[in-house]
Amino acid sequence: MFNSSATGAGNTPSGSRVFRYEVMGLRQSQNTDRMSYPIRQSGSTYITVPYDRMNEVMQRISRMGGTIVSIQAMDANGNFTEKVTLEQSTTQIKQDTVEKGTQAREDSKPMTQAKTATTDVPVNIYRPANPFVGKCLSNVELVADGGIGTVRHITFDISQGDLRYLEGQSIGIIPPGTDKNGKPEKLRLYSIASTRHGDPVDDKTVSLCVRQLEYKHPETGETVYGVCSTYLCHLEPGADVKITGPTGKEMLLPPDEDTKVIMMATGTGIAPMRAYLWRMFKDNEKAANPDYQFKGFAWLIFGIPTSANILYREELEEMEQKYPDHFRLTNAISREQKNKDGGRMYIQDRVAEHAAELWEMMQDSKTHTYICGLKGMEDGIDAALSVEAAKVGVEWKDFQRSMKKAGRWHVETY
Question: Which entry of 190, 276, 346, 370 is annotated as an active-site residue?
């Protein structure tokens, strides 16, 4: 834990100096609530750091989703003396470490923060009062013949604006028309299904995975269709669309290339998972990200009703075939597969089936778990993992809480 007013000094000339970090984008969480510096929803946070703790503080800020905007050196009286770049500070730290006779550990990677700092997390570039107007480029059916419902992969041209986003974020869509009260329709949020570079990897598009909402009215029994999902699923190429955002920091991927990533998704909850997997394994995407070459392990457990509803099936199976040591795909097909009790196979049944492996992975501090899909899916997952945790005398909820505090448990359900 570090203090914004800390003024300790090292034993070297550099170590006696103090630096002020300007930081943006720190995540608000139970962890940061207990720390002694202020966290804001937006804007900058200023942290005063002694030289001998600079590397430690950089890594802490990176883990909490922050970006160091600037570093300024201060004298003993608290006056600013000069600006320092991230590259200068990390280089000096490495040099001084060697001079002290301590071998710099490769796995601490002091330059990681500099890499992360170049890509701030964009939020609300476009707001409902002034949305970006993009164009639909393509609208493709993802459900194969014989499947249930309709799910579309829709790609929008954003080349004429300033919309930027990261994997795991969402955008808002404002459908045309008015609601039942005669007011303009409000925006609906959708998880982004493409990487930051877009499907063509040219920084000009954003894609969504949208299921047309359809349900029976509880009183009349008539079929009701979702306003925005129906609008999007029937959108023609060339049509304008109002876009807001991006939003969200909860579902972002960690920058570590050797992370273990557990993904649990139902239906269109596959959207952020597709973005992660493209970033990890697609050749064009890997070429566009020389500073991020995934070397870890990703496991997707995907719940769908029928084989025809396995969204992005060819992509997923191609990745698993090409990278068998780094990607594993497990489907839970409820209307075609049976669980151990002879009932339908749901995602929680697959989690229970592989609970020992999942539990072992979660013990690794580099393992991140992502859950996306229908609200309520967490209950079955919690129940399955509670049984496994109890085998070693651990209360699942306590362990889950510790993962949340460490920023390793990510949930987005709707």
Answer: 190
